[in-house]
Each structure stands twice: as C-alpha cells, then as structure tokens.
What we know:
This protein is an all-beta fold. The protein contains one helix and 27 strands. The chain has a five-stranded antiparallel β-sheet with strand order 1-4-5-9-8, with no helix packed on it. Strands 21, 22, 24, 25 and 26 form a five-stranded antiparallel β-sheet that branches. Strands 15-14-17-18 form a four-stranded antiparallel β-sheet, with no helix packed on it. A hairpin with a 2-residue loop joins strand 21 and strand 22. It is elongated, with a radius of gyration of 25 Å. The chain starts with a strand and ends with a strand. 27% of the residues are buried.
Amino acid sequence: MRNVFIAAFSYLFLCQCANIVPPNGGLKDSSPPLLLYVEEENQFIKLVFDENIQLKNQSNFYCSPPLSSIPKLKTHRNQVVIEGNWEEGTSYSLHFPSVIADYNEGNLIEKLNINFPNITTDTLSVSGNIKNALQNETSKDVWAVLYTYSLSSPDSILFLKTPDYIAKSDENGCFSFPNLIDTTYWLFALSDEDRNLKYNLPEENVGFYPQAIKPCKSGLEIILFNENASLDSLSLQKIDSSSVFGTLSIDSLPANHIVELLQNDKVVKRSISKAPLIMDSLLVGIYEIRIINDENRNGIWDTGVFLERKQAEAISYYQEKIQLRENWDLEINWKD
C-alpha cells in the first residue's frame, strides 16, 4: 500500500479553524471534515479525514470515465473506501458534491474532486458552461458528456453508447473534464431524467457543441433545449374604465428579431423589431423584454432539432426589468 498525498479542491476554506458558536450544552463544530490523504491499492481507494464522517446524498457521487457498475462507497470511522472495477492505465476523476459530512454535526463538504491515480500522463482538460435556451440562464446539475471522435454520425452515439467522460454542471452552469487523453471529442449536454446517460426520453433536454473539439479548450458554451418546447401564445391584458397606460420605446434593436413584452411570465405584446419600436397602450406595471433571433423569419420561436444538428433560436433578455408609469413614455436602448 502506498500513501499518496493530494491536493483536493473543494471551494471550502479547509485550512481555517472551526467556527465555534456557544449553543446550550457546549461548543459546536460548524466546519466540514478535512481530507488528510488518499491511499490507493488494487481496486480500492481510501479517503482519510481528520474526524469521523458519514455519507449523505450518495446518488450525487459519480466518476469519470463512468464504470459499467457504480463504485461502492463504504465508511469506517474517519475513512471512505471506494471500491470499483478500475481499469489499469485509465485516469479517473471522482466527484463527491455534498456527499461527505462529519459524523456528529453533519457539516457537508460541498465540493470534493479526487483525481486517481495521483500520478498520470493524462493531464489535458476541457471546460465550459451550459445555458437553457428558453431562459438564457445557466443550468445546474446537467450532464456534460464527451465521446471520442468517430466518423459515424456524432449525434446517434448519444442514443446508443455510454459516454467516454462525464461531468456535471455546478450552480453556475460550469463543467470541467480533467485527465483527458490527447484526441478529438464530440461534446454534448443532457438532463438525463432516467439516469442512464443516454438521450431517450421526450422530456429530456439536450444540447451539443457544433464542432468536434480537442483538449485544452475552455469557455465552451452549450445551449440546452427540449425538442418539444414552444413559447407561450399571446395573453391579452384585462382593461377597464379605470385602467391607466404608458408607452415604451425601444431603440437599437437588431434586425430580424421578434420582440416580446412579458408580465408575470406571460407574453402580453409581440412585435417585429424595427428602429425605434414603439409599444403604446400598455398597462402600467413591471415588465420583462426579450428578443428572439428569428433566423428563418417565420414569426415564431423555433426550438432545436438534435439529429439535424439545428440549434434552438437564440433568446436574449433585457438586462433588467422595466417599470411603466402612468402617462409616461419610457425610452430604452437595447445596446445599453
């Protein structure tokens, strides 16, 4: 057996002292366990901490490349033992997001990633982020998956084959693949509702990077879409004799875009972009503005088509909500 001292990154200030608060009955530890070292032996990996630990949220654990059977996690006092059918010569990345906590207080290590074996020649990486097509916001807990490049259709492999490497997006939509070999890959994103790492359900969201990639790439963006998605139809505002109105003028809009005004997540006004675009007779209140890149100029938003490698039409939101006041003309510049 050999002890391998590692640097485990975890978004935690692991070297700080425990924050102590004086509840009734004595001192309380509010710091998560500190990883001391890792031992590697045959089919076992042992993580040794500075205090007794417990496992929580075990379904969060994953390893990349994925194994045919999920590795088993066991605890003994201050140790976690991971047993798996590791292949000799393969570099693995083990991920424990909110999986390990101290035994007494349940303080979680929010993010802990271990590269195994510690000494490896596979040192290349790929990273990026995942965004949702409809909200144009980052997507958390979505799988990013890599397949080794093949001359066959790159999209059919997501239906048929387990990925060669996997990573899950964090709270900022970011993903990272460490320990890659120097070859060419196809990159996809998948919500994977049935946890089989394949695209096979109509409710699953999917996305793809348009070109094959080589390692040492960063800042790659994948737009996640559902092939059955559509935007809401127009909702009429209720107007009566007591209603008061305002006017909105939008300048510097890009050409060939659909402009939509939303209130309480419902589309209340829709128009084709022009400069300036004036929307009048609007009830006073708070609104959001979004524009849709109408690439095929059919007047509606079109989602993506995975097998045709067609991306969903891009949606952008104005940087902040706007407020229309009674008898006011509000002017905004889309480029601001």
